[in-house]
Write a structure and sequence with these properties.
- The chain has about 200 residues and is of the alpha/beta class.
- Helix 7 packs antiparallel against helix 8.
């Protein structure tokens, strides 16, 4: 785990807060970091996790492609955004020990879906990597003792999150469910020792 005091904030670099431009070398080749680093981004739905992950990817990180049983959204590409599989395929991969962590969600009006990240990707030491996980996934990966994890918690006002999710065209009932669940889950996560960086953008309440 990378001490917070040894590096500039990866989030500040990725979002380029202030007038200073984003400098890839600062993020990728900082001599104070033990590379490769696995950046784990965690935050409520609509907090900017995917945006940050894409910015880190543009600056040299290799994104982990996680697996899901949900249907692709408009514009999503299998193998690029997610690996889309059937529930039966997911179960087979889980039973064979392919996942470092996996989570089940009840989607409003659609039923259960599964997400998982592959153990092989955490063992790949050839690149800096970035992955988006929920708090349960973060806890599971921490418990595996995987080295060089750097967990970034994006703590975002849920009113901002709601507006962003609404712009995606998600089902209103699903938006309500996710935000209610996130309020409960991240209230507990905020007081935990599972993350290395805590970024409030903007204030949560």
């Amino acid at each position: 785990m990378i001490p917070r005091t040894e590096t500039e904030s990866a989030v500040e670099l990725a979002f380029s807060f202030g007038p200073r431009p984003l400098v890839p070398d600062e993020l990728i080749a900082n001599e104070t970091l033990s590379l490769p680093v696995i950046y784990v981004i965690c935050g409520p739905a609509g907090s900017g996790k995917t945006t940050l992950a894409k910015k880190l990817e543009k600056n040299g990180c290799k994104r982990m492609i996680t697996c899901t049983t949900r249907e692709p959204r408009h514009g999503e590409v299998d193998g690029e955004d997610y690996i889309f599989v059937t529930p039966e395929e997911f179960r087979s991969q889980a039973l064979s020990g392919q996942f470092a962590e996996s989570q089940r969600y009840e989607i409003a009006n659609k039923g259960p879906v599964w997400y998982g990240s592959y153990l092989r990707d955490y063992k790949d030491q050839t690149h800096d990597r970035v992955v988006v996980l929920d708090p349960f996934g973060v806890k599971a990966v921490r418990e595996l003792g995987i080295p060089n994890l750097h967990v970034i918690f994006l703590d975002t006002d849920l009113r901002v999150c709601r507006r962003r999710i609404e712009l995606r065209g998600d089902d209103p009932a699903e938006i309500d469910r996710r935000l209610a669940e996130d309020r409960k889950i991240f209230s507990a996560f905020r007081g935990s020792a599972l993350y290395d960086e805590w970024r409030i953008y903007p204030a949560y309440y």
